[in-house]
């Protein structure tokens, strides 16, 4: 009887050890998969935010730190573009334009939402949701800042920064230790922002993304 109890206890211990070993091996793998999947979604949307900001700056010579202003711009504003009136190889048509005192360029307006994300199409709802981090049920927003700085060479430039830390979109309950290790590694070993971001409020960097 004692021997049988000992065998049962040993079997339970073995199963427990196997489970612990399995968890130690599989958890980092599952965390890596989740981080890749969720980061890809976060980056896809933050790229659209960057596209909208660059377009905003092309018209207003500054960035905006407000998602309300950015969404309003995309949904309701227009951009002025240029196009050729006639083919450059059509000498007769070019001569006629010259005779009329006109250049071979005309300007036209196009809705912002219809052009800046091409070939991708964003709906009104997509634009209104740009502020929200994917996978958070519209509960978490990207952190957006914009302003003006003066460089060391006394040049005044507009700057923008949009970011979201890893801990705001990764599973901090299931992968608590893995996220702690990730943040520590990024901040202390690589001196990087522990999350996804583009731009900088400290310097002009052409709105570079840290995933690039």
Question: Which helices and strands occur, and which strands form pairs?
Answer:
Blueprint: H1 2-60, H2 67-76, E1 78-84, H3 91-99, E2 105-111, H4 112-115, H5 124-128, E3 143-150, E4 156-165, H6 176-189, E5 195-199
Antiparallel strand pairs: 1-2, 3-4, 4-5
Report the average pLDDT across residues: 87
Backbone CA Rg:
27 Å
Would you count the extended β strands for me? Answer: 5
Q: How many domain regions? A: 1
- Runs in which pLDDT lies below 50 for 5 or more consecutive residues are none
Biggest beta sheet attributes: 3 strands, antiparallel
- The helix/strand order is HHEHEHHEEHE
> For the largest beta sheet, what order do the strands appear in spatially?
3-4-5
In percent, how helical is the residue content? 40-55%
What does this structure look like?
The protein has helices at residues 2-60, 67-76, 91-99, 112-115, 124-128, 176-189, and strands at residues 78-84, 105-111, 143-150, 156-165, 195-199. The chain is α+β, with helices and mostly antiparallel strands. The strands form 2 sheets. The protein has a 3-stranded antiparallel beta sheet, with helices on one face. A two-stranded antiparallel sheet has the order 1-2. It is elongated. The mean pLDDT is 87.
Keywords:
elongated, two-stranded antiparallel ribbon, 5 strands, alpha+beta
Task: Give the gist of this structure.
With 212 residues, the chain is α+β, with helices and mostly antiparallel strands. The termini are far apart.
